[in-house]
């Protein structure tokens, strides 16, 4: 069995935690949870959705019970639109009904929606109870489960209401990716391409080479190949290590920072991505799919303002294409999209901050006022109305 452990050490020692990556780790998740939470924890709420719980719930619950935990299960519906106040309130009520104390905990078993909602509920219930992350999608493994951003969506924007709240531990079982639909894999790999593009040529090329060798459409067939599993887990570990490094240096996304180690750079592709999700009611795109388009738009803007060369833009386009098919965008109104930018959480002093690229591994933070509206609209149309 392949197994790796990464540590994320941020500014406050109480928030340091480990990320375990390997195969078939779920069967021993009870031991892992006990180690993360200590002996005082008695009750655990497992938060998931019906599909994920049907696949992995029994194994998870049985392992937790073997370690003496009283386990309660809260199932939410699947989809970004359910990451809202109403479901949050139901989860908090469930915490209360089962009399969770500050020494008890919640576990997020699922993708980014489950993780974000669980983390935010844990952050505000009793002013903070411990929580653990068991991400079961690629996107959640390399992005949302790492770094402590928790939130819900609302009528006035995505993730505008939330908290920075770090988990006590993250368990990444690569075998859960076997059951993902191709569309979920595409969403996850779009996020991987995003992180490679802002990290370094090394991580970008590692991601691109993996996608060329193992197309997402044939992903499930490769799991019997030991080289595939090793390459997959090495890629996941490299992606997590990059994000952990950024988070450790800038946990709360300091608004005054504009250097390439600012946590803001992780928002590359997210300005357009979040707007696409908002104008389609959080029902049309997977988050990673919207980010995929956001990457292409940000790169097109970078080229049009003269800081990013055409050849590298074409390379980035090709690698995004390797992730799989993205939903059509030709019917999305550009005007509505630009209006949605006003709700973006990257506003600073009423100005939108764009994360653009000078080259692979060299992101730059641009004040929105520096980008002419005509150029912005031209860039969006080039990518979204093909």
Write structural notes for this entry:
The structure is a single chain. This protein is of the alpha/beta class and 386 residues long. The chain has two domains: 3-179, Rossmann fold (3-Layer(aba) Sandwich); 182-384, Dehydroquinate synthase-like - alpha domain (Dehydroquinate synthase-like, alpha domain, Up-down Bundle). The protein is built from 13 helices and twelve strands. It has helices at residues 29-37, 50-66, 85-97, 112-124, 138-144, 182-199, 201-213, 226-249, 270-279, 287-304, 310-322, 334-340, 373-384; strands spanning 3-8, 17-22, 43-49, 70-76, 105-110, 131-135, 149-154, 157-164, 170-173, 347-348, 351-359, 362-367. The strands form four sheets. A four-stranded parallel β-sheet has the order 4-3-5-6, sandwiched between helices. The protein has a three-stranded mixed β-sheet with strand order 1-2-9, with helices on both faces. Helix 1 packs across helix 2. The N and C termini lie far apart (45 Å). The mean pLDDT is 93.
Keyword list:
386 residues, alpha/beta, Rossmann fold, Dehydroquinate synthase-like, alpha domain, 2 domains, 3-stranded mixed sheet
Compute the number of strand runs.
Answer: 12
Run of helices and strands: EEHEHEHEHEHEEEHHHHHHHEEEH
How far the N terminus sits from the C terminus, by CA atoms, comes to 45 Å
Strand content: 15-25%
CATH superfamily descriptor of the largest domain:
Dehydroquinate synthase-like - alpha domain
CATH class of the largest domain: Mainly Alpha
């Amino acid at each position: 069995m392949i197994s790796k452990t990464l540590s994320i050490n941020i500014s406050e020692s109480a928030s340091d935690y480990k990320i375990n990556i390997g195969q078939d780790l779920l069967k021993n998740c009870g031991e892992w949870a006990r180690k993360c939470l200590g002996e005082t924890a008695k009750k655990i709420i497992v938060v998931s959705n019906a599909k994920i719980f049907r696949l992995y719930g029994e194994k998870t619950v049985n392992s937790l019970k073997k370690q003496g935990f009283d386990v309660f299960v809260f199932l939410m519906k699947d989809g970004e639109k359910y990451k809202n106040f109403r479901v949050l309130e139901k989860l908090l009520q469930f915490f209360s009904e089962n009399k969770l104390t500050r020494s008890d905990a919640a576990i997020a078993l699922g993708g980014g929606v489950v993780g974000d909602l669980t983390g935010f509920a844990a952050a505000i219930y009793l002013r903070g109870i411990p929580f653990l992350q068991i991400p079961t999608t690629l996107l959640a493994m390399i992005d949302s489960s790492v770094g402590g951003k928790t939130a819900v969506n609302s009528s006035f924007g995505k993730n505008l209401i939330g908290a920075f709240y770090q988990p006590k531990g993250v368990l990444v079982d690569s075998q859960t990716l076997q059951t993902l639909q191709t569309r979920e894999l595409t969403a996850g790999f779009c996020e991987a391409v995003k992180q490679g593009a802002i990290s370094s040529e090394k991580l970008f090329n590692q991601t691109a080479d993996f996608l060329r060798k193992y197309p997402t459409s044939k992903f499930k067939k490769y799991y019997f190949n030991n080289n595939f599993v090793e390459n997959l887990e090495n890629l996941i570990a490299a992606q997590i290590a990059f994000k952990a490094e950024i988070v450790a240096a800038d946990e709360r996304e300091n608004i005054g920072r504009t250097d390439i180690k600012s946590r803001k750079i992780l928002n590359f592709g997210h300005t357009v991505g979040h707007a696409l999700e908002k104008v389609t009611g959080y029902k049309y795109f997977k988050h990673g799919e919207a980010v995929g388009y956001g990457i292409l738009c940000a790169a097109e803007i970078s080229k049009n303002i003269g800081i990013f060369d055409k050849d590298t833009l074409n390379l980035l386009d090709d690698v995004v294409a390797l992730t799989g098919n993205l939903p059509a965008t030709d019917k999305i109104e550009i005007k509505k999209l630009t209006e949605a930018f006003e709700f973006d959480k990257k506003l600073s002093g009423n100005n939108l901050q764009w994360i653009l690229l000078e080259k692979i591994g060299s992101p730059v933070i641009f004040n929105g006022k520096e980008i002419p509206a005509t150029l912005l609209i031209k860039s969006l149309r080039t990518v979204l109305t093909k």
